[in-house]
Amino acid sequence: QEKKIFMVQGPYPVIRSLLWARGWVEKKFPCKGRVDSQPQQLHGRQEKQLEEEEEEEGDDGVEQGEASRLVRDQVPYFIWTNRCSAFDPQLLQQDQVVNHYARVAAFTTKAGLCLNLQKLPWFDQANPDTFFPRCYRLGDVDEQEAFIEDFHLTAARSLLKVALERAEGVLVGTQQPRKSGEGPGKSCVPHPMAPTAGPGSPLRPQLLEEALQICEQHLGTLRHQDIDKDPPRPSMKGTNWNHFLQDYYRVVHEGAGLTVTGAQRERCQALLQRLAEHLAQMGMEGDNNIWILKPGAKSRGRGIVCSARLEQVLRLAGCCGAPVVRLGEWVVQKYVERPLLIFGTKFDVRQWFLVTDWNPLTVWFYRESYARFCSRPFSLHPSHLDPARHLCNVSIQKQFKPARGWHPQLPPDRIWSSWQLQAYLAQIGQADAWHQVMVPGMKAAVLAALRSTQEVVEYRKGSFELYGADFVFGEDCQPWLLEINASPTMDPSSVVTSRLCARVQRDTLRVVIDHRNDPTCSTGAFELIYKE
């Protein structure tokens, strides 16, 4: 009569115990098929398996097991699963609460997020280039062409940066010039007697002039865009891009010599300053032109590759020759080359948020999160673009042991709580960065992603969903959204996640069950940040 019957599919012992404590009774999830609003009749093997599961619960589970048998033919009113396909939304009753919405792939897959954030200006005044590294779906012909053009233009800008840095007497090799543990905006200046050119004879003098002309044409296009909002693409007529890129690779990746005159140095400086006024991502893009290639619908870091060469990206994605996977599944995204590092090591942050309604859009942001570290020191050397240095996913990093010389203040299990991250920021003189820059930026990015897909997601009043967004931070502490995950892992892979994952599940139930019945009750660490 109180409709306190629930179903749980997947490894969620915390959800089970919390619902039992509230006086709810568990109906066992069907062994096969989907959940619907009709009572489930179990026969033969299913009934035997259910009895075996109840026996395995031991003495502590006898009472729950007996209650489960009593509700075997009843309708579950709270359903928690690890995948939306476990039930058919069309068959659910209005009073059944489910932890998923349909069609959320619009923002929980890499390809979906890439596509829909392009449409953000239609729904919001926010600019996705300020929080989402530019991204292209390589299965779309127009986007593939746009990526190739972006790679060319980024190479030209990178050449100007390298020329300017060398002209100013700063050694620019293939590694980012930063000491381990330095905070945002800090870099190490090499010895003043260090050479400014690497192996190989000086390249043709017109290379830098060509890069300057390319960037000047691009700047003209960007100015036209600000006026007309619908610019033509820069033609770059007369540019032999194959030759240009080969020379660019020699300079940037191999350290070949580059002749820079005083006039060219001044032009580089002025042009880069003007481009930065139009390009929001110039500060994070670095000068190595590294891109990250991702399967469009996979998770846990599977299949992700970093590359600084156009031909390799296109080959891996199947744009030429035999495809590794179907072309339409790949997205390519600009790699954040100047991230905030902790003791010379890359990290990202897993941030939870909860959507309890899409009409009106209602979003809750979790006040606690955790940082995930790589296992090797950060490096942009072409031979160091490996997962151990660049992919923070726990499922990837558990394959590696921490590097020799692992800083003693870095966690052995490669996980920090957000409180530990804030303590580190305070140590490096950035005590206010978390609350004034990082958290507000993450909230804005989450809301922008949701608003861009609000018309696509299948709305259902009795549903809710918990998501996990992954962010990396620039040297200025600005957050960059990498992806949003449905059914974020609740695996207690560390001391920190064991505690936090239990808390976020507890507080999710506080919001979706307790708060619905009593708006004055505690919602734990969840903060309501948006309600239309």
Protein described:
It is a single chain. The protein has 532 residues and is α+β, with helices and mostly antiparallel strands. The protein starts with a strand and ends with a strand. Helices cover 36% and strands 14% of the residues. It folds into three domains: 69 residues; 217 residues, D-amino Acid Aminotransferase, Chain A, domain 1; 153 residues, no CATH class. The radius of gyration is 26 Å and the shape is elongated. It is built from 16 helices and 15 strands. The longest helix has 27 residues. Strand 9 and strand 10 form a beta hairpin. About 10% of the residues have low confidence. Strands 9, 10, 11, 12, 13, 14 and 15 form a seven-stranded antiparallel β-sheet that branches. It has a four-stranded parallel β-sheet with strand order 2-1-3-4. The protein has a four-stranded antiparallel β-sheet with strand order 5-8-6-7, with helices on both faces.
Q: According to CATH, what is the topology of the largest domain?
A: D-amino Acid Aminotransferase, Chain A, domain 1
Low-confidence stretches: 38-54, 170-199, 321-327
Outline the biggest β-sheet.
Answer: 7 strands, antiparallel
CATH superfamily heading of the largest domain: ATP-grasp fold, B domain
Which of globular, elongated, flat, extended, rod-shaped describes the shape? elongated
